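Good morning,

Both structures are done.
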Amino acid sequence: MIVKKNMGRAKSVLLLLFALGFFLASYNLVSMIIHHKTSSSVGWVADGLEWFDPVIKRPGKANSKFHVALTATDAAYSQWQCRIMYYWYKKMKDMPGSDMGKFTRILHSGRPDQLMDEIPTFVVDPLPDGLDRGYIVLNRPWAFVQWLEKANIEEEYILMAEPDHIFVNALPNLAHGNQPAGFPFFYIKPAENEKIIRKFYPEEKGPVTDVDPIGNSPVIIQKSVLEEIAPTWVNVSLRMKEDAETDKAFGWVLEMYAYAVASALHGVRHILRKDFMLQPPWDLVVGNTFIIHYTYGCDYNLKGELTYGKIGEWRFDKRSYLMGPPPKNLPLPPPGVPESVVRLVKMVNEATANIPEWDNLNRS
């Protein structure tokens, strides 16, 4: 069991960041210019963004293993998702084609919880009281700063993941040398929010198209590169939350924009992999994708028709289980529901059937 370590040094880092004025300090960090072009035989460029063909195989690397790291709280809602995520990590870790290394749940509740013996966990401090302003995700970059500073991480690469991720296929290292790989989100639109982005990424740093349409998760990134980006990510996140216009515009994805901007400030561009992740109910087929992200509710009538925005006669929505885990053996969707949703429910059911003490371990 990994227990909480002395966080005095980490807290000093945070105070220093505050004293330097958050954002301005990030400009003085060493620029990590790692964006490099690849030949047309490997990828292609569309709308100024570099895309890679998932069919083309990446040459093996001597140290291609990545450490799976996800930030979490000790709330029941977070715990049951982490348990399912860890179950499927263990199932997929040693499958052919997998580059998964060790696993860490970075627990930013500041104290151990009841899953310490079940899931490898590293306890870090949350932000000082009131600093997150009720936006708990703001603790994520600060959690990574502490973990990177204090933990013994053997792997050269890190996968930043989230509790509501399920590994559906063996995941290789999608990064390319010191160029990280990320998933492009359709709702992260730096160019359409240029006025706001320029508050944190001034014109002299480069065109706004240098800010990738990503969040921090899922991202596979070289550990040394993340160590450079993470303090800036803290700075930008806090500055964005303090700015009323930015907070209103970005809302629940503010921390995602902050990671994208922080990366751009260090000259870091990401390989954009659409096959990194699928998101039911919008993505219909699992295919060769690697992660199911079940952030959206899946609502259908008994004819198998999507009723998104209206509670369906059949539904699966993680927010239905805020106070405790979903029951075992959830009913499968009616005929006509996309394969991705059926696969999701079957994978949840398999995990809950095999995780000990599922029904009573993590209830609020």
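Second structure follows.
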Amino acid sequence: MLLSRAAEIGVVVVVMVVMILFPTASAAVEEKAQQQYYKNAYATMMYMGTPRDYEFYIATRVMMRSLIRLHVQADLVVIASIDVPLHWVRSMEEDGLKVVRVENVYNPYKANNSNDRFKLTMNKLYAWNLVNYERVIMLDADNLFLQNTDELFQCGQFCASFINPCIFHTGLFVLQPSEKVFKDMLHQLDIKRPNSDGADQGFLGSYFSNLLDMPMFHPPPNATKLDGHYRLPLGYQMDASYYYLKLRWNVPCGPNSVITFPGAVWMKPWYWWSWPVLPLGFSWHEQRRNTLGYGAEMPMAILEAILYLGIIVITRLARPNFSKLCYRRFDKSVTAYHAGLKFLAMASIVAAYVVPFIIIPHTIHPIVGWSLYLLGSFSLCSIAINAFLLPMLAVVTPCIGIFGTLLVMAYPWYKDGVVRALFVFAYAFCASPLLWVSFTKVHATLQVSLEREAFLPSRLNESPSPPGFNKLY
């Protein structure tokens, strides 16, 4: 007894010493000890093979971290295909997520859907194989949570919202895991059950074809779990397009809890150019700023800003040499030379507005992204301005016009989306003549420079024109 008591006291002393000498380690031990294994889970999926894998990886981490900030009482699970990079897996695990590695589910409908983004969406069926949980809320990465939605775990065996009047949306749905249902779904894939879109939504819509006739879900006050299938109120899947019409939320059925962003993949909220084109993109980036941050993109953004500033300085200092390279006399094929020079000048201006858009990190904050874009466009325009001796104001007019468009779209006091659209249209209508004037000014300047150069001696050691030559002109 004395030995046992002494051992207990010794363990307590050792623990106290560790906590005093190594507070970080003790905090980690305490955190590990406090980890809970919940009976419910929020889950999402991740797979590779599309041009936008990194963007969806970032979106997944932001969504899951936002759920942590909302203090959800559930595990956070990522169903990741085995080809997801290991450093991504480790980062998600460090976020507190549970990563389940799976083999990709073969999609027999991929021949009917040319969009590579949907070829592996059948991995979503693995949610039914998470049999360690009583209920699972399955999510797409393009959801923006406004508040805790743990009450959804009270729903039945399958529950989803109808964004489309006749087709429920699979960006968020509740399910009861079942190995039997999972195996039956795989069997239905093998026999190619009818599928309207070749992706998970068409398959699940066919599998739960009677959901439209089911009752609406309302959380029981005693926190018990329901049985059966239910329709979720629209407030759990608020289509972002509803917001753009009124520029505010007005969804009366159910709590306004989750925003979803269906539609064109290039206008997802995590892309910097989505705001202010789509105002809700800023809300997503604010959520990212408060959760994940921008540490991965900022070094690249800083390097680009330095590069653009360097281009502006160098092109200005090297202006005489640039113009000598461009305006040179040729005795043969003068017409072709002039046409090629005009094309090169116009192409360089177009490239100045395209290249920055491509090379800026796609998931950077919109304010940083647009600032980099305008700086990059101006710096690349300076190459054309100094090389071809073009008027600065005419070349940078599109840059000024883009900045004005951003101000018009970002104005926060529009009555509704229709008024906002009319103002944008009116601005574009008024600005288009200025763009045309700037184009004609650039073209005229090029023509004058080429005609003047034809009568000047070449800068490459040519003899001057014979006496009296200029008198003819």
